[in-house]
Design goal:
Layout lengths: L11 H8 L1 H11 L4 H14 L2 E5 L2 E4 L2 H12 L5 H13 L7 H8 L3 H5 L4 H18 L2 H14 L4 H4 L1 H17 L1
Antiparallel strand pairs: 1-2
Helix pairs in contact: 2-3, 2-4, 5-6, 6-8, 8-9, 9-11
Length: about 180
């Protein structure tokens, strides 16, 4: 990674801030406003600083595990309710993809189930959770399958046997099968 300062200054404050990961994560947070434009500016800032690496047109990953760990540590300090709202927004964005990534949606869904229960696309999210469970089960990822099925169970309507009895029965059978095997 190139950490040179193109402005020509090399003060100790700049160097200290560069290697102070919590401070760096906080700086990105300050850069990003609550708007989409602010989020994009925050991501661009993180890419320019070398914390994130752009993998594709709309995908990034952390340049180092320590950066990811620092971001997770900072996220743990956010006010209660912030992470579920962020996960909810991520899910809504992923639903616009032509082929939604059911695993990533399932991962974010477990953080924001109460918000998903109230959303008008709840049925679609329930079906995606079941699909994620089926796919995980077929790959042998049994714990992930159980988590996805449990997420789907919590997304069922108050009386699912009246509205969609076939889907409800299939979900309960999958859960019973999982419990009987393990």
């Amino acid at each position: 990674m190139d950490w040179e300062d193109s402005s020509g200054s090399s003060s100790d404050d700049d160097t200290d801030g560069m290697w102070n990961i919590p401070k760096a994560v906080h700086t990105v947070g300050e850069t990003a406003l609550s708007t989409t434009r602010g989020s994009m500016r925050g991501l661009q800032h993180a890419i320019q600083e070398g914390w994130l690496v752009q993998r594709a047109r709309d995908m990034c990953s952390f340049a180092h595990d320590r950066y990811r760990q620092a971001a997770q540590a900072e996220a743990a300090n956010l006010p209660e309710g912030t992470i579920p709202k962020m996960s909810f927004r991520v899910i809504l964005m992923m639903l616009h993809d032509t082929v939604p990534d059911v695993y990533r949606i399932a991962e974010h869904a477990k953080r924001c189930l109460p918000l998903l229960r109230e959303h008008h696309r709840r049925d679609e999210l329930l079906d995606l959770s079941i699909d994620a469970g089926d796919s995980a089960s077929s790959r042998g990822a049994h714990e992930l399958a159980l988590q996805s099925y449990m997420n789907a169970l919590s997304l069922l309507e108050d009386d699912p046997w009246k509205s969609k009895p076939e889907r409800t029965m299939a979900l309960y059978l999958k859960l019973a099968e999982w419990v009987s095997r393990f």
